[in-house]
Amino acid sequence: MPHCFWIGAFTYPTGFTTSLLQRYSRRGGAPSIDKLEFDFIPIGKQVKDITEPAKDGSYITGLYLEGAKWNFEKMCLMEPEVMELTVLMPVIQFKPIQKRVKPPQNVYECPCYYYPIR
């Protein structure tokens, strides 16, 4: 299995993400798939520096930001450079977790589009 998956290679990316939840839910003592959600953890490494697969979930690359830029030092969003329309996101770990009762504070929930036409 690859250490990091390029999300753009999948024809149906939701099938891949569902399989990650399904694989996690089949572990002993894990909650059922309908009680899981993802935690998205930005990783401060380049794809070439990832030498082993994620313990839980998977590392994903190939997501882009429009109208923002990723600050690798502070690990947060920032304003893009002038005339910079799209910026590659860092590697992100899609980590299955049990659904939260309350959403976490100080977290920006950003939509993710599969196709350029939305």
How do you describe this structure in short?
With 118 residues, the protein is mainly beta. The chain has one helix at 13-25; strands spanning 4-6, 36-42, 58-61, 64-66, 69-71, 76-78, 86-88, 92-98.
Largest sheet data: 4 strands, mixed
Number of strands: 8
Report helical residue fraction: 10-25%
Averaged pLDDT, please? 90
Specify Rg, calculated over alpha carbons: 15 Å
Label the structural class. mainly beta
Report the portion of residues in β strands. Answer: 25-35%
Overall 3D geometry?
globular
Distance between the termini: 32 Å
Biggest sheet strand line-up: 1-3-8-2
Contiguous runs where pLDDT drops below 50 for at least 5 residues: none
Number of helices: 1
Order of helices and strands: EHEEEEEEE
What features would you describe in this structure?
The protein has 118 residues and is mainly β. The chain has a domain of 69 residues. The chain contains one helix and eight strands, in the order E-H-E-E-E-E-E-E-E. The strands form three sheets. A four-stranded mixed sheet has the order 1-3-8-2. A two-stranded antiparallel ribbon has the order 4-7. A two-stranded antiparallel ribbon has the order 5-6. A hairpin with a 4-residue loop joins strand 5 and strand 6. The radius of gyration is 15 Å and the shape is globular. The N and C termini lie far apart (32 Å).
